Amino acid sequence: MGILESLKTLLFGKRDVSGEKQDEKPGSAKAEKPADVIIEEKASIIKEPKEEKPVADKITVGHVHMSGCTGCLVSFADTYEGLLTILDKYADLVYCLTLADVRHIPEMDVALVEGSVCINDHLSVEEIIETRKNAKIVVALGGCACYGNITRFCRGGQMNQPQHEGFLPIGDLIDVDVYIPGCAPTPQQIRNVCVMAYLLLKGNDEQKALAGAYLTPFMNLAKAGTEACGCDIMTQVINQGLCMGCGSCAAACPVRAISMEYGKPQIERDLCIKCGACYAQCPRSFFSFDVVNQYEGIMDAIDAAMQP
Amino acid sequence: MVLGNYKQVIAARSTDPEILRKAQDGGIVTQLFAYALDEGIIDGAIVAGPSDEPFKPEPMVATTREELLASRGTRYSISPNMALIKEVTRSYGLDKVGLVGTPCQMQALRKGQLYPVGLRDVADKIALAVGIFCMENFPYQGIIQLVEDHGATKLDNVSKLDIGKGKFWIYTERGATVDLPLKVTHKYEQPGCHVCLDYVANLADISTGSVGTPDGWSSVFVRSAKGDDIWAKAIAAGAFETKPMDSVKPGIDLVTKLATDKITKNQKYLESRATEYGVGKALRNPYI
Ligand SMILES: Cc1cc2nc3c(=O)[nH]c(=O)nc-3n(C[C@H](O)[C@H](O)[C@H](O)COP(=O)(O)OP(=O)(O)OC[C@H]3O[C@@H](n4cnc5c(N)ncnc54)[C@H](O)[C@@H]3O)c2cc1C
Ligand code: SF4
Ligand code: SF4
Ligand code: SF4
């Protein structure tokens, strides 16, 4: 299919196809770095003697904190040493109020936005608009940014901003490119999207194709709308004659709102916090044979990409 | 590729008479997990356990040989084994998880590993996924209908159900056999099965089923690197008796034929959902 091969080429290609060149360039003795492959064409950068790592080809990433709980960022950090690998090889964190002292939203390749937007807080509205203007790819990170999640239940009336009552998922104010649903989104999912976003922006055509294929479902979710609920399992899966009773939705639900009764999901709607995990995880919401049939190779490759 | 990727296909059965006594076919699933448990390859496995209703499977985390033995045999109704896939790594505390499931459950598992939206820390704890062939499944109420109404047999008295040789077989504890033509079973099939494009669990590490081999034996596809490794070790340990697939009847051709039939039929239904349900409207297609 080419997709897997291209990922392998990206990760191991230098060793396979241009081992001889390696010897000519003492500065790039480590061939595993995806960036090395790309760097090859940019001889000027690699010859720069002070440049120990090919940082020039990293993508820039920012974390934008709207009305969220920082749990999405904690999930990002919960890739543990994976986070360091990502920051070391693939991405520069150019903005993140929790972790760095950059005060204003800069330009960036990828904005990871967590939280929804309080439309009664003008600064928040300004910030989400600025984020869209400054970012090539806007990712709604987590249930709140994608779907409102728990902030769907806000209705104001609390000290000391009782008028802060209207909260919207970011997709209701700006165009969003990619969703990562879940409350919290999983570290592994964030990691996978990071690797794929890097390929999408820095890879060759084939690598872009892989990343595109992988990310397509999350782009489609972003196009599909800003509402999620356990009801999606009913309206989009069971009502559509697609449910086969696997139980993935029940496993995915963070609040155990779904139980399986005689092989079908039973949704406790008053427990549901509207995070959208159940529908996104359901194999009958989206399923791409192109990508999933190559699970073995893709998982190995992501593991390899995460090696420090 | 109706049979999916695989490294080898063999006819096999367990060498353990106790496992075989109540296994559906060659006892491949139970033997694989029992061996993997003994060797520490898995800490436990999600299987279809017994429940308080006869032939109604209930997902269960088996961490002992006894629990594995209790899960033997096919229950032709839905066992949502994936429902435990996160819990097994939480309160059960398993690091090396085994899982048995139908092809759709293998798809759910692999999607969950590649796109873990709500399945934190699950992906890399999957040690052995065993898939079972599956033509279709039934809601439990459908099984009651088939056995008690069409078969005029009390479900409490049934010892084994089997679909094979074009019939739905009901075996009772007292030795009676009732068979129903498959035609009567069709309307009880789970509707979600009609969009299913996988017969032999293409995404499992090892998949197995009855079709292709004689009674008491199983057809086994060894698929992934993980599956290959575990299968080789299990063979070396004498867990299975094997025969080359081309030495048994009816053999791989029948497996290929049934797989092709299933996929062709369901592909057609998928297409009809886009054109024949409604005017200017289409039912949703999950495959992108
Ligand atoms: C709904 C269904 C349809 C099937 N259709 C076919 C078919 O068309 N052709 C074919 O060759 N084989 C089919 N099989 C597989 C076959 O019936 C046997 O399950 C398989 O050969 C394994 O036998 P064994 O002796 O190796 O397993 P055993 O050692 O007897 O163990 C059986 C295992 O299957 C699990 N199991 C039982 N019921 C279910 C269930 N409902 N869902 C998930 N897991 C379950 C148990 O947990 C146990 O681990 C089907 C199975 C099911 C559940
Ligand atoms: S049912 Fe659970 S997983 Fe689904 S949206 Fe509600 S809280 Fe989220
Ligand atoms: S995950 Fe989807 S197919 Fe599986 S039980 Fe839930 S709704 Fe049905
Ligand atoms: S036919 Fe397909 S969808 Fe139905 S139970 Fe079997 S594998 Fe699952």
Structural features, described:
Chain A has 308 residues and is of the alpha/beta class. Chain A has 15 helices and 9 strands. Chain A has helices spanning 3-17, 19-24, 34-39, 43-47, 71-77, 81-90, 122-134, 143-147, 187-202, 205-224, 231-238, 248-252, 277-281, 289-292, 295-305; strands spanning 59-65, 91-96, 108-114, 117-118, 135-141, 167-168, 178-180, 258-261, 264-267. In chain A, the strands form 3 sheets. Chain A has a 5-stranded parallel beta sheet with strand order 2-1-3-5-7, with helices on both faces. A two-stranded antiparallel ribbon of chain A has the order 4-6. In chain A, strands 8-9 form a two-stranded antiparallel ribbon. In chain A, a hairpin with a 2-residue loop joins strand 8 and strand 9. The longest helix of chain A has 20 residues, at 205-224. Residues 11-55 of chain A have low confidence and may be disordered. Chain B has 288 residues and is an alpha/beta fold. Chain B is 30% helix and 22% strand. In chain B, the strands form 2 sheets. In chain B, strands 3-2-4-5-9-10-1-11 form an 8-stranded mixed beta sheet. Chain B has a 3-stranded antiparallel beta sheet with strand order 6-7-8. In chain B, strand 9 (206-209) and strand 10 (218-222) form a beta hairpin. The longest helix of chain B has 24 residues, at 252-275. In chain B, 48% of the residues are buried. Chains A and B meet through helix 9, helix 10, helix 12, helix 13 and helix 14 of A and helix 4 of B. The site of one iron/sulfur cluster (SF4) has 12 residues of chain A, from helix 11 and helix 12. Residues 102-104, 134, 136-137, 190, 192-193, 196 of chain B line the site of one iron/sulfur cluster (SF4).
Describe the secondary structure blueprint for this structure.
The complex is a heterodimer of chains A (308) and B (288).
Chain A: H1 3-17, H2 19-24, H3 34-39, H4 43-47, E1 59-65, H5 71-77, H6 81-90, E2 91-96, E3 108-114, E4 117-118, H7 122-134, E5 135-141, H8 143-147, E6 167-168, E7 178-180, H9 187-202, H10 205-224, H11 231-238, H12 248-252, E8 258-261, E9 264-267, H13 277-281, H14 289-292, H15 295-305
Parallel strand pairs in A: 1-2, 1-3, 3-5, 5-7
Antiparallel strand pairs in A: 4-6, 8-9
Helix pairs in contact in A: 1-10, 1-15, 6-9, 9-10
Chain B: E1 8-14, H1 17-22, H2 28-38, E2 44-49, E3 58-62, H3 65-70, E4 97-101, H4 103-114, E5 126-132, H5 140-150, E6 158-164, E7 167-172, E8 177-181, H6 182-185, E9 206-209, E10 218-222, H7 225-236, E11 240-244, H8 252-275
Parallel strand pairs in B: 2-4, 4-5, 5-9
Antiparallel strand pairs in B: 1-10, 1-11, 2-3, 6-7, 7-8, 9-10
The structure holds flavin-adenine dinucleotide and iron/sulfur cluster (SF4) (3 copies).
